[in-house]
Design brief:
InterPro entries: TadE-like_dom
Organism: Alterirhizorhabdus solaris
Protein name: Pilus assembly protein
Number of domains: 1
Strand order of the largest sheet: 3-2-4-5
Number of strands: 6
Strand content: 15-25%
């Protein structure tokens, strides 16, 4: 009995540690799913894309992350990476439009809407690769839906011992069957547009 009393605290710590690791793994999985689903669904929108489509995508993404309170602790940044159609030394790619959702205060690692439109600041495209040839870029007359997702991890039991941890995921999909990349209003009021200057759940 004495031995069990001595071992019990260790067993409890191991169990709690295992639970925390499981929770962290599930949070990583959810963030990856949010990034992939958002990029894929945005790329699947046919003919033209609208603010209504974006709002639907963001609602779906936040639903995926509802069990980890993603809307309150995370941020989705969806960028349309397009050729800037310049032919001189400024030739490269641009962020044609950018939409966001979630309360976490974070910005895109690659720039805001309009970056690269008049210069070659996105000469090689987007992506974390240090090798320019490996960066993600669209073909001529099309676009890539590039998603960045950030999330402040919410520990279950180890909040006072674990420092604030950010989980990040990036995913990209080529646009399919959409020749018009210009964002359309889609009947959405200006106040309801998922602008990246808004930080709301």
């Amino acid at each position: 009995m004495i031995e069990f009393a001595l071992v019990l605290p260790v067993l409890i710590l191991l169990a709690l540690g295992g639970l925390e690791l499981w929770n962290f793994g599930m949070a990583n999985l959810r963030i990856s799913q949010i990034a992939m689903t958002t990029a894929d669904n945005a790329a699947r929108v046919r003919n033209q894309i609208s603010e209504a489509d974006i709002n639907e995508l963001m609602t779906g993404a936040k639903f995926i992350g509802r069990n980890i309170k993603f809307a309150d602790n995370g941020r989705i940044i969806l960028s349309s990476l397009e050729p800037n159609k310049l032919t001189d030394t400024r030739k490269g790619y641009k962020i044609g439009w950018q939409r966001c959702a979630g309360k976490m205060t974070v910005v895109s690692a690659y720039g805001v809407e309009g970056k690269g439109a008049t210069d070659n600041s996105l000469q090689y495209g987007m992506g974390p690769s240090l090798i320019n040839a490996n960066k993600i870029k669209p073909a001529d007359d099309t676009a890539v839906m590039y998603v960045e997702v950030n999330y402040t991890y919410q520990p279950i039991v180890a909040g006072r011992w674990i420092s604030e941890t950010t989980i990040r995921a990036e995913r990209a999909f080529n646009v399919r069957q959409r020749v018009d990349q210009v964002m359309k209003p889609g009947g959405v009021a200006d106040a309801d547009i998922a602008k990246c200057t808004k930080y709301t759940a």
